[in-house]
């Protein structure tokens, strides 16, 4: 049992809360008193709630199919129609590097992921061969219940920039040609118990030919590529949309066919949500060149039918050239859009969650995740993230952590599962 602690939620909310943190079944929970100053949002009157657990444990703690995983990175989470939480991650066998023997693993959470015991042991979506399966980007078809899972793949002798394969020591060559990085699709029709190819076979379906454009706008080969990573969306009109590098991948027939909508190219890793006004909102990681012009997240708005605006920086959303996550929490008044990233231009350790009430145009309320509980053995939190709305109206967030920031080039990585309510965010600051 940890001792009581005083939280300082932010300059604009001066109050003292007594916090009791309990370590139960691997989950750290925090209960807080109602502050003197309440937010205008009626959700602010609810008791604050925030729990955290280490869901994917790196440093060779978790094993599957004979592999003890050094690192888990690149998380994604969705809630199925049955209310099950599906948490995905890249399982990196022998290092934290972005290439080598990397498998796509996941866990199923019941009871809204309330306790560590509510999560399954490690499961594998795909791990065939010694190459890299990564960038999980799932979406749930709310009409049929099918869970679609998009991912990127490259062979064991390839990587984004070259370097020695951490598993074999053999040299890899940089990906420079179309098709060396590929697009694969899987699906589950049994609430995430198992995943198959589109045709029901055990192997993922290679969709590179139809979903990976051959050339970029300047005529160069479309060589490197990335799905998401994070979440796709099921829109109000039943369209499935997967955010991907420089494009949206979408289906209007429940996944029977998939098409590409090309976008402009100043960004890389992508997020998407459907806002309360019905528009689609891309919030992306800028390329290094783009980031140097404005060290912020870059956003674009539009629709599948009507196209998207040009990307522009959101001055409020500081960014250290990293992935982020966005979630449309609700559309009824007051509508709320939730955004999570490292709010820094210098490092990935300043994770902050924000709320917008005007279709992601302003972000008046926010709170750093560091003011929430941190489980024992969690390491230093920060990096990639993914969010979903749980069936009990809370926000479930996966966030990366570094187990040794003093040796980041070789350190193991884990993934935390945080669960908090709107009130917890609202008792942060108007900043």
Automatic annotation (TrEMBL):
Residues 364-385 are annotated as: Disordered. Belongs to the glycosyl hydrolase 33 family. It comes from Actinomadura alba. It catalyses: Hydrolysis of alpha-(2->3)-, alpha-(2->6)-, alpha-(2->8)- glycosidic linkages of terminal sialic acid residues in oligosaccharides, glycoproteins, glycolipids, colominic acid and synthetic substrates. Keywords: Signal. Its EC number is 3.2.1.18. Gene3D superfamilies: 2.120.10.10. It is an enzyme of class 3 (hydrolase). Residues 83-392 form the Sialidase domain. This is exo-alpha-sialidase. The keyword Ion transport does not apply.
């Amino acid at each position: 049992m940890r001792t009581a602690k005083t939280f300082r939620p932010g300059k604009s909310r001066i109050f003292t809360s007594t916090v009791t943190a309990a370590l139960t079944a691997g989950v750290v929970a925090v209960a807080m008193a109602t502050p003197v100053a309440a937010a205008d949002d009626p959700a602010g009157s609810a008791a604050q709630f925030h729990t955290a657990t280490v869901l994917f444990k790196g440093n060779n703690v978790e094993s599957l199919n004979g592999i003890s995983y050094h690192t888990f990175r690149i998380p994604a989470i969705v809630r199925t129609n049955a209310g099950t939480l599906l948490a995905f991650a890249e399982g990196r066998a022998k290092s934290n590097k972005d290439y080598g023997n990397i498998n796509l693993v996941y866990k199923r959470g019941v009871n809204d992921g309330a306790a560590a015991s509510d999560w399954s042991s490690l499961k594998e979506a795909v791990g065939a061969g010694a190459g890299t399966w990564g960038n999980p980007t799932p979406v749930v078809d709310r009409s049929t219940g099918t869970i679609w899972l998009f991912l990127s793949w490259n062979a064991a002798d390839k990587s984004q920039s070259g370097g020695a394969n951490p598993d074999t020591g053999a040299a890899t060559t940089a990906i420079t040609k179309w098709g060396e990085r590929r697009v694969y699709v899987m699906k589950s029709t049994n609430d995430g118990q198992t995943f198959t190819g589109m045709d029901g076979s055990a192997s993922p379906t290679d969709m590179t030919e139809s979903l990976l454009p051959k050339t970029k706008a300047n005529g160069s080969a479309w060589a490197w590529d990335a799905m998401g990573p994070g979440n796709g969306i099921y829109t109000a009109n039943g369209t499935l949309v997967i955010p991907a590098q420089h494009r949206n991948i979408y289906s209007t027939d429940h996944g029977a066919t998939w098409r590409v909508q090309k976008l402009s190219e100043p960004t890389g890793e992508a997020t998407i949500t459907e806002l309360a006004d019905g528009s689609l909102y891309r919030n992306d990681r800028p390329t290094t060149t783009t980031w140097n012009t404005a060290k912020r997240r870059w956003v674009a708005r539009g629709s599948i039918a009507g196209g998207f605006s040009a990307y522009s920086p959101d001055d409020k959303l500081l960014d250290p050239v990293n992935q982020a996550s966005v979630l449309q929490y609700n559309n009824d008044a007051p509508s709320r859009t939730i955004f999570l990233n490292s709010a820094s231009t210098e490092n990935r350790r300043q994770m902050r969650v924000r709320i917008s009430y005007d279709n992601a145009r302003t972000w008046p309320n926010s709170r750093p995740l560091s003011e929430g509980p941190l489980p024992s053995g969690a390491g230093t939190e920060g990096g990639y993230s993914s969010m979903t709305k749980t069936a009990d109206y809370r926000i479930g967030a996966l966030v990366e952590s570094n187990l040794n920031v003093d040796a980041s080039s070789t350190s193991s990585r884990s993934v935390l599962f945080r669960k908090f309510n709107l009130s917890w965010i609202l008792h942060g600051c108007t900043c």
